[in-house]
Amino acid sequence: MRWNGRYDSSFGYVSAQGAPLVDLLDPRPGERILDLGCGTGVFSAEIAGRGAEVLGIDGSPAMIEKAIALHPGMTFIVGDGHDFTVADRYDAVFSNAALHWMGRDPMAVIASVRDALQPGGRFVAELGGAGNCAELIAAMLTAWREYGLREPELPWFFPTPAEYATLLEKGGFAVRLLEYFDRPTPLDDSPGGAADWVRVFGASLLAGLPTEIVEPLLRRVNELAAPALRRETGWMADYVRLRFAAVRR
Ligand code: BEZ
Fold first, then answer.
1. Contacts of 88 by beta carbon, 8 Å cutoff, 6+ apart
2. Which of 10, 81, 103, 135 could tie 228 with a disulfide, CB 3.0–4.6 Å?
3. Strands (E), 79-203
């Protein structure tokens, strides 16, 4: 699914699916760009490499500590996407695989991004879209139920394209491009498959459980997820992406 305005023609940007998100951002030398949910700063550094001045913000102090260590000379600060403020306005806000962790109040996130941008500033981002990790989540919910556990409150927000476009428009943005597509993703860093993925990304859901059930529960997640997600070459996560470029009105 795809809506696009000027990006194809004026920005030389053709398709989301194979192209790097940074190409859609199209950072120019001297631009001021904020990387929201920067993690360890991989994309911040790439954007800075194209000549932009970058500020990376992340809610995790541990991530920011790593970003500072990995990218000396760059600026990274701890901040919550729901209510961060910046002293001077930016030309663009970029965000990769982070907005789906900011689901408590997505409108507040969009409002903070808007306040950080100058009029005409770009908001270019990718997040998990509706149906993201559906097989992983179904395996988790079934395993939780089989073990007599309360249904876990998932910490992610995976909106439909229509939902997110509406939020952006209500939040004062004009949507120029919106794409929604499957991106099956090898779990290269998770040799233990779906179980490892839950250990890393669903750590908060495991935190309150009796320790003795965690391993059998995760083994069951693997059994349930394997038919859909385990291939001969390894495990594959059923990621669905929502990618957009919007402009502050
Ligand atoms: C992702 O779609 O990138 C994702 C979703 C939930 C947890 C971790 C990653």
1. 32
2. 135
3. 90-96, 117-128, 173-186
**SS3 for 29?**
coil
pLDDT tens readout for residues 138-164? 999 999 999 999 999 999 999 999 999
What is the domain count for the chain? 1
How far away, in angstroms, is 14 Cα from ligand 1 center? Answer: 25
- 29 Cα: distance to centroid of ligand 1 (angstroms): 31
Evaluate whether residue 2 is within a structural domain. Answer: no
Asked, for residue 29, whether it belongs to a domain, the answer is: yes
Residue nearest to atom 3 of ligand 1 (CA): 97
> Can you read off the two tokens belonging to residue 245?
């470029």
pLDDT tens-digit map of 175-185: 999 999 999 99
5 in a structural domain = no
Give the span between the Cα atoms of 13 and 181, in whole angstroms: 16
Q: Report the phi/psi class of residue 109: left, alpha or beta, with left for phi > 0 and alpha for psi in -120 to 50.
A: alpha
Whether residue 157 lies inside any domain: the answer is yes
* Residue 27's CATH number: 3.40.50.150
CB half-sphere exposure, 153, CA atoms < 13 A: 4
Range of the structural domain that residue 168 is part of? 13-248
The residues near 66 (Cβ < 8 Å, ≥ 6 apart) are 40, 41
Model confidence pTM above 0.70: yes
Q: Are 22 and 83 in contact (CB under 8 A)?
A: no
